[in-house]
Design brief:
The complex is a heterodimer. Chain A is α+β, with helices and mostly antiparallel strands. Chain A has one domain: Immunoglobulin-like (Sandwich), CATH 2.60.40.1890. Helices cover about 15% and strands about 50% of the residues of chain A. Chain A is built from one helix and ten strands; from the N terminus they run αββββββββββ. The longest helix of chain A has 24 residues. The radius of gyration of chain A is 19 Å and the shape is globular. Chain A starts with a helix and ends in a 14-residue tail after the last strand. By secondary structure, chain B is of the alpha+beta class. Chain B has a single domain, classed as Glutaredoxin (3-Layer(aba) Sandwich). In chain B, the strands form two sheets. In chain B, strands 1-10-9-4-5-6-2-3 form an eight-stranded mixed β-sheet, sandwiched between helices. In chain B, strand 9 and strand 10 form a beta hairpin. In chain B, helix 2 crosses helix 5. Chain B is globular, with a radius of gyration of 19 Å. Chain B starts with a helix and ends with a helix. At the A-B interface, strand 2, strand 4, strand 5 and strand 8 of A face helix 2, helix 3 and strand 8 of B. Strand 5 of chain A pairs antiparallel with strand 8 of chain B.
């Protein structure tokens, strides 16, 4: 085959693959995902991120191979009492960047199989459902950040 | 008998004198805090006895001469507890030399899962000077009650998480309760109020 043609063919295939990848992730986007590091034998931690859907959707679940059980929890503060508990889903209004941070919703990773150390990466799979009931899964690689980082604390001033 | 009474009177007089001397330090209710809540009219945490991660029994008086800042939590907590500890570490740095007198004390509400080993590693990750205390389930319950701290287990799948009061309680160097700091305050705001406490005691 002609070498130039061959190259064009390759480029075309690559482009169409990129297009497919783009389509698959166009509906919902995940930014700034991270997981809190743990100390040895600690069996639970939290994952945090910002999720933006382009149409009204719901974040239904998060999964990861490193934890036995993953749940989405909501933290609320009333009279200085911090309450936490599982929620069925998180509303993702169209175009709105919904923060899952230490001040509100967060992903609980429970039954961790190993200590999470700073610098490692945790694979997370998010399942999002749009208003039509179509489900979409997103793969995210979340870096492990130090146990002591204060990310999210300063946002509390904005509430 | 008379001689004994007199001696008692002398002792009582000395006690009053002692209180008078204390008053130089103790200006209860007179301090004004910019951010925290004045708790000087409350008596909390006077009688608790819990173990530190070396197995030693500790009470509030074990920290005399320091400025204890006590709060409650559990290490499986992903959000508020590490954020509050990280804030405490930042406060200690912001206080500079005075930070040496700040004693951060973390009391676990989850003694069933928070072993001394986990607590020790957890504290050291934030600051090696931080102390974690734990007790039996009953001791923990009694301590929380003494601090008027609310907590309850919330079932989560086959495990649980804990809702709890997240206030940090600040004592002066003589063990008098002074200040309650909410988690919504920044390290800078807390530091300002802590230095106010330190000015008098």
């Amino acid at each position: 085959m002609h070498p130039v043609l061959n190259n064009i063919k390759r480029a075309a295939i690559a482009l169409s693959l990129m297009g497919l990848a783009f389509q698959a992730s166009a509906q919902t986007k995940v930014d700034n995902a991270w997981v809190r590091a743990t100390v040895p034998t600690q069996t639970a931690s939290g994952a945090f991120m910002t999720v933006t859907a382009d149409s009204d959707s719901k974040l239904l679940s998060v999964a990861t191979p490193i934890a036995k059980d993953v749940q989405i929890h909501e933290m609320t503060m009333k009279n200085d009492v911090m309450s936490m508990g599982p929620v069925k889903f998180v509303e993702l209004p169209a175009g709105e960047a919904v923060k899952l941070d230490p001040n509100g919703y967060h992903v609980m990773l429970m039954g961790l199989s190993a200590q999470l150390k700073e610098g490692e990466t945790v694979p997370l799979t998010l399942t999002v459902e749009n208003a039509k009931g179509e489900k979409e899964t997103l793969e995210v690689k979340a870096p492990v950040r130090s146990l002591t980082n204060m990310e999210g604390h300063d946002h509390s001033k904005m509430h | 008998m008379t001689a004994l009474l007199t001696r008692r009177k002398v002792l009582a007089g000395m006690g009053v004198l002692g209180l008078g001397l204390l008053a130089g330090c103790d200006t209860r209710g007179e301090l004004s805090y910019k951010y925290g809540k004045d708790l000087s009219d409350k008596i909390l945490g006077r009688t608790f006895k819990l173990k530190n991660t070396d197995g030693e029994t500790m009470s509030l008086s074990s920290f005399r001469g320091m400025m204890p800042m006590i709060f409650f939590g559990f290490t499986q907590c992903p959000a508020v507890c590490p954020t509050t500890l990280a804030r405490a570490a930042k406060i200690k740095k912001l206080m500079g030399k005075d930070g040496d007198r700040l004693q951060v004390i973390f009391i676990t509400l989850d003694p069933e899962r928070d072993t001394p080993e986990i607590l020790d590693a957890y504290m050291k990750a934030f600051d090696p000077s931080f102390v974690a205390l734990y007790g039996t389930v009953e001791e923990t319950k009694a301590t929380a009650k003494e601090f008027d701290v609310f907590y309850e287990k919330v079932p989560a799948g086959d495990t649980y998480t804990i809702s709890h009061t997240s206030t940090s309680y600040v004592y002066d160097s003589r063990g008098g309760l002074r200040l309650g700091l909410s988690t919504s305050l920044s390290a800078e705001e807390c530091t300002e109020d802590l230095l106010t406490v330190m000015e008098v005691c």
